[in-house]
UniProtKB/TrEMBL annotation:
It comes from the Bacteria. This is Aldehyde dehydrogenase family protein. It holds the Pfam family Aldedh. Keywords: Oxidoreductase. Residues 1-20 are annotated as: Disordered. Residues 14-483 form the Aldehyde dehydrogenase domain.
Length: 487
């Protein structure tokens, strides 16, 4: 799909990769989308050093200048959105509508948002304090100011499920705050991130402020994390990888922002609007083919409506068109790779062995004779101890567990290593909010799977560390400095 092999972007220059190139595969057709560069450890360190050298001047630029660059980048992404969406679809396997509306469009919107974010105040007055005379000095009234300062060089390690929104959600607020970045894209779909770097360069980002290094080998990501010039790591991905990154960061006290795994509980009470609940839960079957950490994959349903909910979810899944994401009308595209398809299928088989009932799905679809497809799968008769209930599958698989009363439902929801986003469906709004407050999750959707993109986003427990989105992302990519003076 792309003509020339992609080069790395280091210190404002397009650089030949020391490790050659590897193929990026279209999950729908199994054809080669393009050749991605394989950076060496030395080249990653070179990128971090370039970011370190650029930090001094970039962090002192006027907020208005940073805002103008981010705004221009958004405009350039929108200008080329059709071609960029085609590439994103081919790399990630997302449907055309998703690639246009939820990948490229959201990426551009995040650059627009943080163009405004660059202009947000970074100083906050602290109430004066009256001090008595003593060993620390004379009596007096002391004023104080809390000032948010950029952290420094930020490594952004991005996820494969959205090669536009996820990187933009890291790069844009980091740059808005005056940080410089080293971006290590997911190995499965890195080409879109290089297009983002092109837009930023054309928009006027100075050399070294944005650097992109990719590779299929683990050493590339490891170097981007352990580089001595890096002050902070922002990572989206699995909890297991996040734990390893955190261990490395701990050795040199690097700051961290971690958005990790999820096993979202969807509590459905007997008085819920079942149609709305099914529509929300059903997105797990279709949206990114279940490859999304916020999906309501663990359905906890009050026993009186269990059979009705299962029947409606099965019917919903049965109406979804599985096939080539480039074809109009396709709802469920492929998962990212053959290896991931096999992993998801192994979980379905595990569920069967554990005693779950496969209501729908369970067979490998073959809509085109090629591609990495998984059928929307619904597992019923599940118990809380099953691995399919406890572990993140990251595919179009929903498990159903019944509960009898509110207390049991809350207990089941909280009985998880994860705590990213949970959901509550109930006709009693007071109860829904009461239950939401007791859920150990970073976010709770009440009668919706919708998101407020200014609300803090992040997880409890093993679902992550820190919060981003909206102004919270600006806080995440900054340190707080106190300035004190005598009145």
């Amino acid at each position: 799909m792309t003509n020339a092999p992609q080069r790395l972007f280091i210190d404002g220059e397009w650089t030949e990769p020391a490790g050659g190139h590897y193929e990026v595969t279209d999950p729908a057709t199994e054809e080669t989308v393009g050749l991605a560069p394989e950076a060496s450890r030395a080249q990653v360190y070179e990128a971090a050093a370039a970011a370190r050298a650029a930090f001094a001047s970039w962090s002192r630029t006027r907020p208005g200048e940073r805002a103008a660059i981010l705004d221009r980048a958004a405009g350039l992404i929108q200008r080329d959105s059709a071609a960029l969406a085609d590439l994103a679809r081919a790399e990630s396997g997302a449907t055309t509508a998703t690639a246009r509306g939820m990948q490229v469009a959201v990426g551009a919107a995040r650059f627009r948002r943080y163009a405004k974010g660059a202009l947000e105040p970074v100083e906050e007055a602290v109430a004066p304090q009256i001090n008595e005379a003593g060993p620390m000095g004379r009596a007096g009234i002391f004023g104080a100011l809390a000032v948010r300062q950029p952290v420094g060089v930020v490594t952004c390690v991005t996820s494969y499920n959205n090669p536009w929104a996820n990187p933009a959600g890291k790069i844009a607020p980091a740059l808005a705050m005056g940080n410089t970045v080293v971006v290590k894209p997911a190995p499965q779909d890195p080409l879109s991130v290089y297009r983002m770097a092109e837009a930023l360069a054309e928009a006027g980002v100075p050399p070294g402020v944005v650097n992109v290094v990719s590779g299929s080998a683990p050493e590339v990501g490891e170097a981007a994390v352990d580089a001595g010039d890096v002050d902070m790591v922002s990572f989206t991905g699995s909890t297991a990888v996040g734990q390893r990154i955190a261990e490395v960061c701990g050795r040199s006290m690097k700051r961290q922002l971690m958005e990790l795994g999820g096993k979202g509980a969807a509590l459905v009470f007997e008085d819920a609007d079942l149609g709305a609940a099914v529509a929300g839960i059903g997105t797990t079957f279709s949206f990114y083919s279940g490859q999304i950490c916020t999906a309501p994959t663990r359905v906890l349903v009050q026993r009186g409506v269990q059979d009705a909910l299962i029947a409606q979810l099965a019917a919903y899944a049965g109406h979804l068109k599985v096939g080539d994401p480039a074809v109009k009308g396709t709802v469920v595209g492929p998962v990212i790779s053959a290896a991931h398809r096999d992993r998801v299928e192994s979980y379905v088989e595990l569920g069967r062995e554990e005693g779950a009932r496969i209501v729908t799905g369970g067979e490998r679809p073959d809509p085109t004779g090629r591609g990495f497809y998984v059928a929307p799968t619904l597992l019923a008769d599940c118990t809380p101890d099953m691995r399919v209930v406890r572990e993140e599958i990251f595919g179009p698989v929903v498990v159903v567990v019944p509960f009898d009363d509110e207390e049991e439902g809350i207990a089941l929801a909280n009985d998880s290593d994860y705590g990213l986003i949970d959901y509550v469906w109930s006709g009693d709004v007071a109860r829904a909010f009461r239950v939401a407050r007791r859920l150990r999750a970073g976010g709770v959707g009440v009668n919706t799977i919708g998101r407020n993109m200014e609300a803090p986003f992040g997880g409890f427990k093993r679902s992550g560390v820190g919060r981003d989105v909206g102004s919270y992302a600006l806080h995440a990519y900054s340190e707080v400095q106190s300035i004190v003076w005598p009145g």
